Amino acid sequence: MVGRWWIAAALGLAASLAQANDGCSAGSEFEPRLCPSGLPAIKQVIIQQNGMKSAQETNPAVRCDDFKLSVRQVRQFLTQAGEVDKQDALHQLDWSPCYASGEVRFKDGRVGLWQISQLRQGSVRLGEGEPVYLYCPACRARPFKQP
Question: Residue 6: its pLDDT value, please?
């Protein structure tokens, strides 16, 4: 019995150390685990839609006019945000009907489509690949709603 406990403890410690060494935060009940996004350096940000309201939001009282991001704020978000797992993005982060979207051109020549919501979550899709889901708890600019 002692041998099994020791093996289980050692495996748990090894998993914790591996997670600590991958550059990701541990996360919590209220915050998802954040990892470096790995997005390349940004060359240009283009805003195509700003202050938009999701078609899924049917309440006419909900307004998104005050959620307008500048190119500088989009660049900061994409640079500061951490990558979150798709399941965490869909189930742990709060949804916002207000968003901005556009295109980002990276210095390595790749182009991505980005979307950022008022509650500091977003995504970038590079080519035909799966989106990179992002969350930026450090983004405190005025248009973002704070928790």
Answer: 39
